[in-house]
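REQUEST FORM: STRUCTURE PREDICTION
Request ID: SP-0412
Submitted by: Lab K.M.
Chain count: 1
Length (residues): 223
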Amino acid sequence: WISKDSEEVSKIRCRGLPEGVDGPLRVLEIDGVDTNLCCGTHVKSTAHLRQIKLLHTERIRDRGKTHVRLHFVAGGRVLSLLGAASKQQRELSSLLAVAPEGQMASVEALLSTKKEKTKEVKALMAEILDFTVEHLKQRAADGEKVLDVHRESGDMDLMKDLASALDSSGALLLTTFGGPGAGTFMLSGPADRVAELGPKVASILQGRGGGKGRYQGKAEKIS
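STATUS: Completed
RESULT:
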């Protein structure tokens, strides 16, 4: 037993004392293996635990040494965990329309399909980008000084790609994604014009933004 204010507490590996701890602390030591604080609750016989289930192990580094932390449940928690796992398994089987033993294969197939579809979408987005850029460049070549692009969905990377592709055109490009309502926007083109018009565009779109060379931000009035 040691005092909770003892310097020895800092030398014992633990996650910290919970609030409200009062009185001496019990230290458990397995010689050459581990030293830890007792976390209670005590039973008169290990038979009172009924069962113990080791769940998994976790390697951790502490003060330059590697330790293995055991994760387990005991007593009634074993049955509670079993019930929760069984319920989750039934729900997954219902969602995937497969027997429990087929869940892993089903999820792996879904992930593989998702990966393939992601590649397809990326390739299609590249084609859309090329088509959009060519159309915008033609408009700029025809003398338009202000260009615009609007999409219901898109990310900042797509906005940057469009802006970069039109940098040499000398035209202003206003790109908006989202709406009706909230969304994002970017104004790109000649730096002096962007600096002058960026805040005005943000105000009209009921948004806020910033940036040098490219004025970008979020807005509440994208249509």
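NOTES: Helices lie at 76-96, 103-141, 156-166, 191-204.
Reviewed by: T.R.
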